[in-house]
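Bit of a strange request maybe. I'm writing a small parser for structure token strings and I need a real example to test against, not something I typed by hand. Could someone generate the tokens for this chain?
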Amino acid sequence: METIAFRMNLNAGQAAEYKRRHDAIWPELATLLREAGVSDYSIWLDEETHHLFAVLKRTDDHTMDNIPKTEVVRRWWDFMADIMETRPDNSPVEVPLRKMFHLP
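Reply from user aminoacidic:
Good idea to test on real output. This should exercise your parser:
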């Protein structure tokens, strides 16, 4: 099992809407993530900078690389594009983060 983290950018004033949408995450999207080997996925907000900090665990044989090719993820990206920083294809701008410390 591997833990990874990344940062995304939320548009100012969109915290409540972002939380509302994620509180109602589509069941087919949650299933897709789990089937790809993702678990213990959480997203945190820095309210001062509007940075979203995501951390998740994934299995050694994960298939996360296939997730962007799925129809449900493309629809989710389109659904979220109005409230966060995205690329031209509406995928969220993600910045990988490097682990600097871990206390087991």
